[in-house]
Write a structure and sequence with these properties.
- By secondary structure, the protein is mainly alpha-helical.
- It folds into 2 domains: about 60 residues, 434 Repressor (Amino-terminal Domain); about 30 residues.
- It is built from 7 helices and no strands.
- The longest helix has 15 residues.
- The protein starts with a helix and ends with a helix.
């Protein structure tokens, strides 16, 4: 699973935005953005919200990797199931199969 910094880096690349531009829009320093990307620091909630707006995403996606669209949601659900399958009861597995077959 990716980190906040990895998600910020990926979105910066997709938008063709520099760390300096992001820092300006988020109201923080370029050094702070660099620390967020490296994983040395985590943005405060107010800065996280500004970063999310600047990058066209949500704070949920930045903080937790919670998907932004249906395609990403399916991928996220698959990863969650795969990661937890060994801890699920037979009944929980059957419940997931039942949901999928609806």
């Amino acid at each position: 699973m990716s980190t906040v910094g990895e998600r910020i880096r990926t979105l910066l690349e997709r938008k063709g935005m520099t760390q300096k531009q992001l820092a300006h829009e988020a109201g923080c320093t370029e050094a702070a953005v660099s620390h967020y990307i490296k994983g040395d620091r985590t943005p405060r909630s107010d800065v996280m919200a500004k970063i999310a707006i600047a990058l066209g995403t949500t704070t949920d996606f930045l903080a937790e990797g919670i998907p932004q669209n249906k395609t990403d949601e399916v991928t996220y659900a698959k990863k969650l199931i795969a990661r937890n399958v060994d801890y699920m009861t037979r009944e929980e597995k059957l419940e997931i199969i039942e949901i999928l077959l609806r």
